[in-house]
Write a structure and sequence with these properties.
coiled coil; 3-stranded antiparallel beta sheet; 15 helices; 541 residues; 3-stranded mixed beta sheet; transmembrane; mainly alpha; 71% helix; HD_domain
C-alpha cells in the first residue's frame, strides 16, 4: 500500500500535490466541524433528557412525599386514638379498683367498729363478772372461816363421841375402823356388782343390737348353700354277684383296688353295698369313682383296675384345681399362689360335721368381707383370711398338728401377709386376736358353722359335750345343780342361796363363761344363766 502511494506521488508534480494536500486539509476541517456540531447537538439532547428525567423524579418524589405525609398523619391519628382509648380504659380500671379499695376499707372500718363495740360489751361483762367473782371469793372466805369453826367444834364432838363409843362398845378406835371398813367394803362390793350388772346388761343390749344388724345385713347379702353334704363312702352295686367279681380269684381284684387307690374296701353282709374306708377324702373319692366306673364297665381285672384308677386320679386332680379356681373367682381374691389354690380345692372333698369345708370357707370369706364393709374396714384382708382360715384341713391327715397350725405353716410357706396369718392362727382362739380382721373371721366362722342346717353332730359327741358342759358349770363352789338346755346353747346354774349372794352371781356367771371358753369346743355361743332362789316356808297352826 505504501509503495503504491509512493509511486503515485512520484508521478505527480508539485502543484498537484499542493492541491491534493489542501483538499485533504479542507476535508478534514469540514469533517471536524460537522463532528463538533453533531457532538454539540447530542450533548444538548442528552442534557434535555436529563433535565426532563430530573423534573419527573422531582415530581414523583413530591407526590410520594405527599402520600407519605398523609399516611403518617393517619397513622399518628390512629396511634393517638389508641393511646387515648387505652388511657381511658386504664383510668376506668384504676377508678374501679380505687372504688373497691374504698369499699373494702369502709367494710373494715365498720367491722372494726363492731369489734370495738363487742369488746366494749365484753369488757363491761368482764368487769361485772370480776366484781361478782370478788364477791364470791369473799363469800367463800367467810364460809371457810365458818366451816373452820364448825370443823373445830365437830372434832371436839367427835373426840367426845369416840370416847363415849369406846366406853359403851368396849372396842378400840382401830377395831371400830376395821369393822366400819368391812361394812363399807361389803356395801361397795354389792353396789359395784349391781352397777356392773346394769352396765353389762346395757352394753350387751346395745352390742347385741348393733351386732345383729351387721350380721343380718351380711347374711342377707351372702347367698350361700345351706344344705349339708357328705363325702360318699358307700358304693351301691347292681347285685350281690358283683361283690365276687370285685373280690376276684384269690382276692386279686380287691388287692389291686386297695393298692391302686390306697383305700380299704369293706365287703360285709350288707346287701348290694361296698363301704370305702380312708382318712384321705381325695383317695376315697378316687376309689369311689374307680369302683363305679369298673362296675358300670363290667371289665374287672388288675390291669384294668390300675388303668381306671390312674384316669380317675387325673380327673379328680383336675376337679380339685378347678374347684380351687372357682372358689377364688367366686370370692374375688387375687394373687394366691397356684399351689395354695390347689390345696384349697382339696377342701371340696373334706367335710366337718357334714358341712362341706370348701363351701364353708367361701361363705366365711363372703360374710367377713360384708361385715368389714358394714364396719368401714378394708374387706380385702378379711376376705382373704376367711377363705384360707381352714386351709389346714385339706392336708391334716398327712401332716402332724392341728389344722390351725398347719394352715399357719402353709400361709407362711406361700408368703401370705402377716394379717392373714394372724387371722388364721386366731380363728379358734389358739392365740388372742389382735386385729379387727381376725375378730371378723372368728364371727363369720361361728355364723357359718352355727346356723341351722349347717352341721350335724353324732349322738355320742353331742352327749359328751352336754355332760362336759354340766360338769364344768358344776365345778364351782356354791353351785347346787346344773341343767343344759336348748341343745347345749344355754346352761342354767342353780346356786345355794346361803353361800352365794346376789352380787356374787354376776361374778360367778362370768367365771363359768370364761372356763367354758377355755375348756370346751362348741358351735356358736352358750348362755350362762345363774339362778339364786330363796324360799321362806312356815306353817300356820
Amino acid at each position: 500500500m505504501t509503495s503504491s502511494i509512493g509511486l503515485l506521488l512520484a508521478s505527480l508534480d508539485a502543484g498537484q500535490i499542493v492541491g491534493i494536500v489542501l483538499g485533504v486539509v479542507a476535508a478534514l476541517a469540514a469533517g471536524a466541524a460537522a463532528g463538533l456540531f453533531g457532538y454539540r447537538s447530542y450533548s444538548n439532547n442528552k442534557i434535555g433528557l436529563a433535565k426532563r428525567e430530573a423534573e419527573r423524579i422531582l415530581e414523583e418524589a413530591g407526590l410520594e412525599a405527599k402520600a407519605i405525609r398523609k399516611d403518617g398523619l393517619l397513622e399518628a391519628k390512629e396511634q393517638q386514638n389508641r393511646l387515648r382509648s387505652e388511657f381511658e380504659r386504664e383510668t376506668k380500671e384504676k377508678r374501679a379498683e380505687w372504688q373497691r379499695t374504698d369499699n373494702r376499707l369502709l367494710q373494715k372500718e365498720n367491722a372494726l367498729d363492731k369489734r370495738e363495740d363487742a369488746l366494749g360489751k365484753k369488757e363491761d361483762a368482764l368487769d361485772r363478772k370480776t366484781a361478782e367473782l370478788e364477791k364470791a371469793q369473799k363469800s367463800v372466805e367467810d364460809s371457810r372461816e365458818r366451816l373452820k369453826g364448825i370443823e373445830e367444834e365437830l372434832n371436839k364432838s367427835q373426840e367426845i363421841l369416840r370416847g363415849e363409843l369406846e366406853r359403851v362398845a368396849g372396842m378400840t378406835r382401830e377395831e371400830a375402823e376395821q369393822e366400819l371398813k368391812n361394812a363399807l367394803l361389803e356395801d361397795v362390793k354389792k353396789g359395784a356388782a349391781a352397777e356392773a350388772k346394769a352396765i353389762e346388761a346395757e352394753a350387751r343390749e346395745n352390742a347385741a343390737r348393733e351386732a345383729q344388724n351387721i350380721i343380718v345385713t351380711a347374711i342377707q347379702r351372702c347367698a350361700a348353700d345351706h344344705a349339708t353334704e357328705n363325702t360318699v363312702s358307700v358304693v351301691s352295686l347292681p347285685s350281690d354277684e358283683m361283690k365276687g367279681r370285685i373280690i376276684g380269684r384269690m382276692g386279686r381284684n380287691i388287692r389291686a383296688l386297695e393298692s391302686a387307690t390306697g383305700v380299704d374296701l369293706i365287703i360285709d353282709d350288707t346287701p348290694d353295698v361296698i363301704t370305702l374306708s380312708s382318712f384321705d377324702p381325695v383317695r376315697r373319692e378316687v376309689a369311689r369313682l374307680t369302683l363305679e366306673k369298673l362296675v358300670a364297665d363290667g371289665r374287672i381285672h388288675p390291669a384294668r383296675i390300675e388303668e381306671v384308677a390312674d384316669k380317675m386320679r387325673r380327673e379328680v386332680n383336675a376337679s380339685i384345681k378347678e374347684a380351687g379356681e372357682e372358689a377364688v373367682f367366686e370370692v374375688g381374691v387375687h394373687g394366691l399362689h397356684p399351689e395354695l389354690v390347689k390345696i384349697l380345692g382339696r377342701l371340696k372333698y373334706r367335710t366337718s360335721y357334714g358341712q362341706n369345708v370348701l363351701k364353708h370357707s367361701v361363705e366365711v370369706a363372703l360374710l367377713a368381707s360384708l361385715m368389714a364393709q358394714e364396719l368401714g374396714i378394708d374387706p380385702k384382708i378379711a376376705k382373704r383370711a376367711g377363705l384360707l382360715h381352714d386351709i389346714g384341713k385339706a392336708i391334716d391327715h398327712e401332716v402332724e398338728g392341728t389344722h390351725v397350725q398347719i394352715g399357719v405353716d402353709l400361709a407362711k410357706r406361700y408368703k401370705e401377709s402377716g394379717e392373714v396369718i394372724h387371722a388364721i392362727a386366731a380363728h379358734h382362739n389358739d392365740i388372742e386376736p389382735e386385729t379387727m380382721e381376725a375378730v371378723l373371721v372368728q364371727a363369720a366362722d361361728a355364723i357359718s358353722s352355727a346356723r341351722p342346717g349347717a352341721r350335724r353332730e353324732s349322738i355320742e359327741n353331742y352327749v359328751k359335750r352336754i355332760e362336759k358342759l354340766e360338769d364344768i358349770a358344776g365345778s364351782f363352789s356354791g353351785v347346787e345343780q346344773t341343767f343344759a338346755v336348748q341343745a347345749g346353747r344355754e346352761i342354767r346354774v342353780m346356786v345355794k342361796p346361803e353361800q352365794v349372794d346376789d352380787a356374787a352371781t354376776v361374778f360367778l356367771a362370768r367365771e363359768i363363761a370364761e372356763k367354758l371358753e377355755n375348756e370346751l369346743e362348741y358351735p356358736g355361743q352358750i348362755k350362762v344363766n345363774v339362778i339364786r332362789e330363796v324360799r321362806s316356808v312356815d306353817y300356820a297352826k
